[in-house]
Amino acid sequence: MADERLIAALDFHTLEDVKELVNTLGDSVSYYKVGMELFYSVGSEVVTWLRGEGKEVFLDLKLHDIPNTVASGLCSLMDLGASILNVHASGGYTMMKTAADRLHEEAAKRGIACPKLIAVTVLTSINQEDWEGLGHELQIKSAVVRYAKLAKKAGLDGVVASPQEAALIREACGPDFLIVTPGVRPAGASADDQSRIATPAKALEAGASHLVIGRPIRAAKDPKAAAEAILKEMESVR
Ligand SMILES: O=c1ccn([C@@H]2O[C@H](COP(=O)(O)O)[C@@H](O)[C@H]2O)c(=O)[nH]1
């Protein structure tokens, strides 16, 4: 049976590829992530198709702009039926608060369930050297916790972070805060372009609420077997 803590990333650019993977994974996976590559190529049709198949959707478009533009953009996306939408925490407290407030107001006005809103802290591809190259003085871990606390104060439901920061965020933001972690790799798998990684079991033990996993499933010779091995590892952490 599907474990809703696993979100498989659909980084494709055609609906045919999406259908093939989703049909192959069948009932094993119930939650999917639609990111920029897919949404920019296919548009909202992919979200409608996934919802029609009974799947939950994390629409990972990482909005990053001035407060009014981000809030308005989210309001344009909220009717699609995604369970989670997101923004970049580096857009600042005012942007996050405006976005969360407007999303809640609009959901009440339209009489629909409000999607969860989460903030990307520091991309999981960024290592300490990249980070310092951007002029940041805090350690990545400290910056991530700072962004997570700001997101919580702004009324967001959670964050995207690496599994390496999950325990610190859980401690700082409490048991109900969503901690969605990409950068998850089964032992021995290639890290690809990810820098701050951990295995599925370690990510859950550290307090992640959801694991986003793309290439280890999508690029596997047998994606269903790869997903089931990950689900088996996840089962040991409840
Ligand atoms: O910090 C972040 C935020 C988002 N992502 C997205 O997650 C998946 C990860 O895919 P893999 O193939 O498992 O590396 C991908 O869609 C990213 O856009 C992230 O990796 N890090």
Automatic annotation (TrEMBL):
Catalytic activity of the protein: orotidine 5'-phosphate + H(+) = UMP + CO2
Instruction: Tell me the active site.
Output: 60 (for ompdecase activity), 62 (for ompdecase activity), 62 (proton donor), 65 (for ompdecase activity)
**Domain spans labelled Orotidine 5'-phosphate decarboxylase:** 5-230
One short Pfam name that applies is OMPdecase
Q: Which CDD domains match?
A: OMP_decarboxylase_like
Transmembrane intervals: none
Pathway(s) this gene product operates in, as recorded in its UniProt entry: Pyrimidine metabolism; UMP biosynthesis via de novo pathway; UMP from orotate: step 2/2
Tagged with keyword Hydrolase: no
Query: Self-association or partners: how does it assemble?
Result: Homodimer.
Record HAMAP family: OMPdecase_type1_B (MF_01200_B)
NCBIfam families named among the record's database cross-references = PRK00230.1, pyrF
Question: What the protein does?
Answer: Catalyzes the decarboxylation of orotidine 5'-monophosphate (OMP) to uridine 5'-monophosphate (UMP).
Query: Know the name of this protein?
Result: Orotidine 5'-phosphate decarboxylase
> What gene is behind this protein?
pyrF
